Amino acid sequence: MENQRQAYREEARELLAELENALLELEETPDDSELIGRVFRAMHTIKGSGAMFGFDDIAAFTHEIETIFDRVRGGEIAVSKEMVNLSLSARDQIQAMLDASEGENTADASNGEAIISAFRSLIVDAGLPEPDQPGGIPEGVTGPLNAPPETGKAAHATYRIRFRPEADIFASGTNPILLLNELRELGDSTVVAQTDAIPELADLAPEACHVYWDIILTSSQGIDAIKDVFIFVEDDCELRIDVVDDGRGPGSDADYKRLGEILVERGDLSTGDLVAVLREQKPIGELLVEKEILDGGVVTAALAEQHHVRQVRDRRREKAAGSSIRVAADKLDALVNLVGELVTVQARLSQKAAQDNECDLLAIAEEVERLTAELRDNTMSIRMLPIGTTFSTFKRLVRDLSRDLDKNVILTTAGEETELDKTVIEQLNDPLVHIIRNSIDHGIEVPAAREASGKPVQGTVHLSAVHSGGDVLIQISDDGAGLDPQAIRKKAVARELITPDADLTENEIFQLIFAPGFSTAEAVTSVSGRGVGMDVVKRSIEALRGSIDISSRKGAGTTITLRLPLTLAIIDGLLVKIADDAYVFPLASVEECTEFSRHAADKARERKMMNFRGNIISYLSLREIFAVEGEPPDNQQVVVAEINGEKIGFAVDHVIGQHQTVIKTLSRVYQDVQGISGATILGDGTVALILDIQRLAYAVETEEQIAA
């Protein structure tokens, strides 16, 4: 049972995310019936599944909110900002109840009662009758106040109900419509009024009931709850309740029953009459041929097409039934670790085969290498998730924060389909929260200031993601006041981060905001101003082997660009050697490799530049950077890589070739080493360091500026 409860928690969290998005969209377009339907369906599913798996407090609380939106669907209540605010609070309360079920915290029942009370006030304000409130709310349960009996609960079974009241039922003061409404509260229902017994107007008795009803009801409350609805009129009506689907299995007949079967089961048609009618019918193909409208061959071809397509759709339906499964994250991580170990073993096998030079062993090693590469790619693709899910969570943040700061801000997004490793996405949430909070608090002006400067009153924060080689670029931009380089410089001098005569570019000044404790805010608020956040952002992004860049124009806004690797587990690398030490370049950043003579390499090293296909590009010698002793080979090889759109040549002793690289994180002792992002184990058991070429180039440039 606990497995099913955990599955419900996961499904409920997905539904809560969907509910939050739908509510935020509904706030913008309150008359959108499709959005109202999305909200209702999400709450209905949370309630129904919660009751099934023992989350009675969630089911009871959600039932109250669902009732309100059922009235919204019916046009009785209009969507208002207050209703959206309450609904979002209700969503947070359900989230708290879910967390409480796992022992993470305790849900505040009084908060749930306050939300329900506020919703009831909305009903009263709309001039509608308030739901009955017998007995109050039991301790620890936050509604509903008029819940149906708990006895007789079962799976979501489907019932066929025939309710035919006596003609004089009105004389006893009974209103059948109220009974039908009470029946609707038990679950999803379809009600059909049968009017065949209504007489001609001249013979109509106004005080008599001439209508009866057929109801199809899907409910988890059980047949006893249905009988309780009619308990006071059971002697004044004809009542028939049949179970047509017990809800205990997925079912095998997608088309359910044929019309004739249903009519016979209901007792509205005899088997003999059905057979007689069917005998009179002829297939449409036979009728077309008889009337010489079509040739028999054409009809045969059409029948063949029909049969074929039905078979294909049946197979597709069977495949779709098991097309996706939910896998625990720790199992997926374990799979990736095993694949990483397999990659390392495969490298050992390939190296051994090359050393022994045996044809059979070489063939086996090549086949294992191919299969390992496919397994690695498939495993990594399973870990890739669209970043849109993360983006959507910030809509609520922007909405609530702009309200708290008395600003008018919206969030727009682009590139939601861009995929990233799940580990990267999980660690990306906090940095993005800090950046967005700063954009709204420091960047976006208050409406009056925006209007005075000729800007739209409503500010915009834009989130976008796009692939760039082996990386993903995530940009957070706003149309606010922008950064003031002079104010940043003045603050940095006051905090002795730089000297008053320091010669810094505008980009270097912007990078000062990542210094610990740095803030240009004049006053400390509940949102920012303490200088905590942006330094954490930088450390978090660098821990992901990424980089962060800022561009801004005073009065026109700021754009922060995060460059992140696609994955933190296994990458394609280019293995090189300097003396006896091995290093790995991320292959996605490598443009090509070329070769230099000893004399040409010496000249390039002196000038820090080289001629590459007619263009002058920067040149760095890894032997010199890492202070490797000994003489370089007569012919040095150069790996040309692209960093932020610029090409840089890295001189190495030897290029070994492509290498599947399993990334191993370095010890905390080495976490501040510039230019190294991790390590990997080679086939012979030696360790190769993985180069972070962007930070390496930046470190060299910084040292040269300091030396100058």
UniProtKB/TrEMBL annotation:
Residue intervals of the CheW-like domain: 570-702
Pfam families in the record: CheW, H-kinase_dim, HATPase_c, Hpt
Domain HPt: 1-101
GO molecular function: ATP binding; phosphorelay sensor kinase activity
Protein's UniProt keywords contain Translocase: no
Residues covered by region (Disordered): 130-152
Record flagged with keyword Lyase: no
Catalyses which reaction(s): ATP + protein L-histidine = ADP + protein N-phospho-L-histidine
Domain spans labelled Histidine kinase: 364-568
Residues carrying Phosphohistidine: 44
Gene Ontology CC annotations of this record: cytoplasm
GO BP of this protein: chemotaxis
SMART domains from the UniProt entry: CheW, H-kinase_dim, HATPase_c, HPT
Keywords, alphabetical: ATP-binding, Chemotaxis, Kinase, Nucleotide-binding, Phosphoprotein, Transferase, Two-component regulatory system
Role noted for this protein: Involved in the transmission of sensory signals from the chemoreceptors to the flagellar motors. CheA is autophosphorylated; it can transfer its phosphate group to either CheB or CheY.
UniProt name for this protein: Chemotaxis protein CheA
Gene: cheA34H
